[in-house]
Amino acid sequence: MPRILTYNVHRCVGMDGELDVARIAKAIAQLRPDIVALQELDVGRARTGGVDQAHAIAELLGMSFHFHPAFRVEEESYGDAILTACPLRVMRAGALPGSNAVRGLEPRGALWVKIDLGDVELDVVNTHLGLVPHEQRAQASALVGDTWMGHADCTDPAILLGDFNATPRHAAYRRLAERLRDAQKSHRRHGLPTFPSRFPMIRIDHVFVSRSVTVTGVHTGHGALIRQASDHVPLAVDFRIDLRPRAS
């Protein structure tokens, strides 16, 4: 049964202030995922030694990857990536709506790929929403609109995941939950918190699944390595694809 993981890696700078790409890869490897969605990656940035973090993590995990920069300044980039050892093809990578009312907000984007699981193709969209509520609402609406999850080529089975900076009480979360099922709620009574990593208290990293995706397990990392590697803990979901008609 495949496992998908989402993880905000905080540009590979841990809670101890140390930059350690290998530590992030080790944290991911502990959970043995087949598909990995990462947020807050630096690529070629002076502040993190000019390393291509997406490439380095993928190489350490023995996976291929695609990186999408949420923003780029000359040769420096910052954004999100999807990694997997399965065949992958990119469908779309682009920006999400920002805010005209608040200046200086970090640009946000999304990455959509199709992953060949052998007997079925899985649509996966990785994203990282903003911090301002009205910005989040616009971004959530875009994600379930006709350029992303609502696109004719984005078919069931599909998974939307990432750092949404929104708890289940937020309007952006509710907008997404109208269209897709929260993987945690479909499997367990109480969701697992993912932030902050030292003492996780709130649930802002989510995995949303379409109709035919049956969740069979939900996990977060634990232990000293996970608590130190980033300010979030990784969230992993086990699933199977059931394309048989279901009773309504």
Would you tell me the overall average pLDDT? Answer: 94
Q: What is the class in the CATH system?
A: Alpha Beta
Termini, distance in Å? 25 Å
The fraction of residues in strands falls at 25-35%
The computed structural class is: alpha+beta
The coarse silhouette is: globular
Uncertain ranges: none
CATH-wise, what's the superfamily?
A: Endonuclease/exonuclease/phosphatase
Largest sheet: 6 strands, mixed
Radius of gyration: 17 Å
SSE order, one letter for each helix or strand: EHEHEEEEEHEHEEEHE
Could you give the order of strands across the largest sheet? 3-4-2-1-12-11
How many helical elements?
5
CATH architectural designation: 4-Layer Sandwich
CATH topology: Deoxyribonuclease I, Chain A
Q: What would you say this structure looks like, in words?
A:
18% of the residues lie in helices and 35% in strands. The protein has helices spanning 21-30, 53-61, 133-143, 171-179, 224-229; strands at residues 3-8, 35-43, 64-73, 76-84, 88-95, 109-116, 121-128, 158-163, 181-182, 205-209, 213-220, 235-241. Strands 3-4-2-1-12-11 form a 6-stranded mixed sheet, with helices on one face. It has a 6-stranded mixed sheet with strand order 5-6-7-8-10-9, covered by helices on one side. The chain is built from 5 helices and 12 strands. The longest helix is centred in the middle third of the chain and has 11 residues, at 133-143. Helix 1 (21-30) packs across helix 2. The chain has a single domain (3-241), classed as Deoxyribonuclease I, Chain A (4-Layer Sandwich), CATH 3.60.10. It is an alpha+beta fold.
